């Protein structure tokens, strides 16, 4: 069992029960999955290969290429063309990546992760990391990848019902959040 999973089960669950009212313990919010996504503006094979390699270096799991669902004439994007690469992390890989965020990334971020009040979907939280700074230690060794990578979108999916539950859950894992 990962130490963050143990921390969630032994400490955060009891804090949630004391702070909020639940009729059933299955209603307790928890982190379900983490989705890592490299979006791409161009459709060159070099960009997708670099994105897939970077995702595999960061997570030790192979990524998949995402395709567009709808055409966009303004952006000259056809339906079914590659749009980016993503990896979905669950269970042990999710907690490993969350610990990597807490140990490697958040000490290097000078600003707090901003939690906007206009946020409508309460069961997920997204943040973007610019790869030009080479935040991940795995990517520092492969500097040539940073030239082709765009920003990394990290989405943390939970089953929280309210914004307060989501904010409390993420703050419990010591993510540096700030509301505006």
From TrEMBL:
Highest taxon, organism lineage: Eukaryota
Mitochondrion keyword on record: yes
Annotated keywords: Mitochondrion, Ribonucleoprotein, Ribosomal protein
Keyword Ribonucleoprotein: yes
Cross-referenced SUPFAM superfamilies: RL5-like
Domain Large ribosomal subunit protein uL5 C-terminal, chain residue ranges per copy: 82-176
Pfam families: Ribosomal_L5_C (PF00673)
GO BP annotation list: translation
InterPro entries (UniProt xref): Ribosomal_uL5, Ribosomal_uL5_C, Ribosomal_uL5_dom_sf
GO MF: structural constituent of ribosome
A GO CC annotation given for this chain: ribonucleoprotein complex
UniProt cross-references to Gene3D superfamilies, sorted A to Z: 3.30.1440.10
Family membership noted in the UniProt record: Belongs to the universal ribosomal protein uL5 family.
Protein name, UniProt field: Ribosomal protein L5
Lineage: Eukaryota, Sar, Stramenopiles, Ochrophyta, Bacillariophyta
Gene: rpl5
């Amino acid at each position: 069992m990962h130490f963050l999973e143990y921390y969630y089960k032994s400490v955060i669950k009891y804090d949630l029960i004391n702070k909020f009212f639940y009729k059933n313990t299955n209603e307790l919010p928890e982190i379900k999955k983490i989705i890592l996504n490299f979006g791409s503006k161009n459709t060159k094979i070099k960009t997708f290969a670099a994105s897939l390699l970077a995702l595999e270096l960061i997570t030790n799991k192979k990524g998949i290429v995402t395709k567009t669902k709808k055409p966009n004439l303004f952006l000259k994007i056809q339906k079914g063309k590659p749009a980016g690469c993503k990896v979905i992390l669950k269970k042990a890989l999710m907690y490993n990546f969350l610990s990597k965020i807490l140990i490697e990334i958040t000490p290097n971020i000078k600003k707090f992760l901003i939690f906007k009040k206009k946020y409508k979907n309460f069961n997920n939280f997204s943040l973007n990391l610019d790869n030009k700074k080479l935040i991940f230690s795995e990517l520092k060794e492969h500097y040539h990848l940073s030239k082709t990578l765009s920003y990394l979108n990290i989405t943390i999916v939970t089953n929280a019902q309210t914004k307060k539950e989501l904010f409390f859950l993420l703050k419990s894992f010591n993510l540096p959040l700030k509301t505006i």
